Amino acid sequence: MERTLIVFKPDAVQRGIVGEILSRFERAGLKIVGAKMLNPDYKHYFEHYEGIGTLKTRKGDKIFEDQLASMQEGPVIAMVLEGVEAVEVVRKMVGPTEPKSAQPGTIRGDYAHVTYSAAASINRGVSNIIHASAEKDEAEQEIAHWFSDSELHDYQTVHERFTQPAPHKAKK
To answer: Domains in the chain, start-ordered, CATH in brackets?
Structure first.
């Protein structure tokens, strides 16, 4: 099974839509193996967005600083989801980073409509509801950055009970 990180951004928390969005992941068969609400500081976000994600390197100082400021506007909810090809499944469900480009039916397509240029014109990071790891290696680094091993849990869901092979029983 693969794990991925999602972070419900301040705009999702403040709008009260976290539960509604989370239920979409659960209905798809993804399992929550870690969850917490927190207010990360600048240093934490710097490591997330530049140390792991290279946003500053790729997009420049202004976009980077606007994004970090937007992320510090309120608490976030970080979660680790687990499932078959979880990184790819979650990215497909979330949609492209720019909400304007996201198709209806994706999380960003259904809950956001901001463009990069509109966000830049008011010196804000783009409000796009949720962060989702872009690839497997990135997910592993992000999970280690946001969660300790003791904060991640192994358990079997009912969905797993009925979609995985039954354990072999010894004959009498």
So the answer is: 2-152 (3.30.70.141)
For the stretch 6-58, pLDDT in tens is 999 999 999 999 999 999 999 999 999 999 999 999 999 999 999 998 888 88
Distances in whole angstroms, Cα of residue 45 to Cα of each of 7, 49, 59, 94, 159: 12, 6, 16, 20, 34
Encode pLDDT of 117-151 as tens digits.
777 777 777 788 999 999 999 999 999 999 999 99
- Indicate which residues carry an active-site annotation: 131
Asked if 109 and 102 touch (Cβ cutoff 8 Å), the reply is yes
Q: How many residues does the chain have?
A: 172
- Whole-angstrom distance, CA of residue 22 vs CA of residue 60: 32
Instruction: For 11-145, list the strands marked E by DSSP.
Output: 31-38, 76-83, 130-132
pTM over 0.85: yes
Q: Calculate the alpha carbon distances from 104 to 60, 78, 146 in Å.
A: 30, 24, 30
Q: Which residue has the tokens 């490591």?
A: 47
Closest of 137, 120, 30 to residue 66, by C-alpha: 120
